[in-house]
Design goal:
With 222 residues, this protein is mainly alpha-helical.
């Protein structure tokens, strides 16, 4: 979690700096062409979108690692959500920016984020899917998804920090942290560049192939 958090913060540091300056600094337009009042509105939307996931994580954290773990269920979720992402990508109007969702839309994206507690549900995948369905442009949907993950990932990291301190192998944790941060930054960079000009089709196909592979192998051993 903390390695991924570093990756997201490092990639979106301009956005985060702009949000801070919108409340504390000079009233100037940022690199995305967003004025301070717009950036403050975005912060409110991101905050509202975070609430459902935080509540779900708090209530279900103890059971999340044991419930809904049947391989068949995971495979079906991979395939079904791949279909939903494909449909959202193809039929979305794609005309809205990160500042355009209503308060109810932001909460709706937050509710979708709560489903990421299910092992076959990708947090970024489900939130991007719902954002696309709400008409956000592809890059803006990804941008909203990653920015709204920051407080949630940070909260998860804080909750587990005591376990980190008492870990018997801090060197292994450091290696995992570095790997998560570097691979996470690379993945975000690739995705954000890709969706500027292309659809989410490779990610849809990936989910179909992985889900089908799991179902095929389960049938072989039953």
């Amino acid at each position: 979690h903390l390695g991924t958090l570093v990756a997201v913060v490092a990639y979106f540091w301009r956005d985060l700096t702009g949000f801070i300056l919108a409340f504390t600094g000079p009233h100037v337009t940022n690199s995305e062409g967003e004025r301070p009042e717009v950036r403050r509105h975005i912060v409110v939307l991101l905050f509202l979108a975070t609430i459902p996931g935080a509540i779900a994580g708090f209530l279900l954290e103890k059971n999340a690692n044991t419930l809904f773990r049947a391989p068949q269920q995971v495979a079906i979720e991979l395939i079904v959500l791949g279909v939903l992402l494909g449909l959202a990508d193809w039929f979305s109007s794609g005309r809205r920016g990160i500042k355009d969702p209503t308060i109810l839309s932001a909460i709706g994206i937050g509710l979708a984020q709560s489903l990421a507690l299910l092992p076959g549900v990708s947090r970024s995948g489900i939130t991007i899917t719902v954002a696309l369905l709400l008409g956000l442009e592809r890059r803006e949907a990804a941008r909203f998804s990653f920015l709204m993950s920051i407080p949630l990932i940070a909260g998860a990291g804080v909750l587990k920090f005591k376990e980190i301190l008492h870990s018997p192998d801090h060197l292994a944790l450091a290696g995992g942290f570095a790997a998560a941060a570097l691979s996470g930054f690379a993945a975000i960079s690739i995705l954000m560049r890709w969706v500027q000009k292309h659809r989410y089709t490779p990610f849809v196909v990936y989910r179909w192939v992985l889900g089908g592979f799991v179902l095929l192998n389960l049938s072989r051993f039953q």
